[in-house]
Amino acid sequence: MATARKNLPGGQAGRDSRSSAPLPRVVPDAATPTAAGPPAELGPAALRALAHPLRIRILDLLPIRGPLTASKLGEIVGESSGSTSYHLRQLAKHGLVREVEGKGTARERWWERTPGGFSISSAGKDSPAGRQTAEAVNMEFLRLRNERVMAFTRAGQEADEETLESWMGSATFVTVNKWATREQAKAVVEAWEQFAAEHLDPLNNQEGMPGAVPFEIHFDVFPTVDPEGNPL
């Protein structure tokens, strides 16, 4: 259902895709990227509030499944509605989720991810504990992302030919290996942000449009060795 390409030495293209070390900065959902830069980084209090696997799972699900109630979230993650309701309120305190205006009742509230996205970086933290928290949260988001990639790949093995043909070309996994300076890598990231503003922003608010289904788009830029040449 998808092509996987990897840039090989000598410029030859091969059908290979590999996962590598996590990014120093992870943007779990750049919902409204702009040319001005990535979404704002989470502060220490919000990051501590997010350092819970179920809260990360909730934030990971909402952009994919759309607005959900605590009860429906509970069904999906195998928790009680009381548990998911509590975690939703904690996330809301830090502006990570919000109630959907004009939908639901006092007994059954609908929740969605707060627009604008956010980023998480282990750099610049004032304590080892802060860096460890950022790293743990990033790793969990990346683990969930990888689970979805694997689920999509498995689905392709079970799909019929008609389904495969209808989706062929609409999904791809690409890994490109180049040598670059920090400045050149930064320029690539800035070009991506401009691309996102021009081509991804227009896709906002298309839930319910005929033929539209949730898609996930990945863009990773990171070094594979440290300045001394040691593998990361």
From TrEMBL:
Listed Low complexity bias regions: 24-39
Annotated keywords: DNA-binding, Transcription, Transcription regulation
Domain of life: Bacteria
Residues making up the signal peptide according to the UniProt record: none
InterPro entries: ArsR-like_HTH, HTH_ArsR_DNA-bd_dom, HTH_MetalResp_TranReg, WH-like_DNA-bd_sf, WH_DNA-bd_sf
Pfam families in UniProt: HTH_20 (PF12840)
Keyword Transcription: yes
Residue ranges of the region described as Disordered: 1-39
Name this protein carries in UniProt: ArsR/SmtB family transcription factor
Domain named HTH arsR-type: residues: 45-158
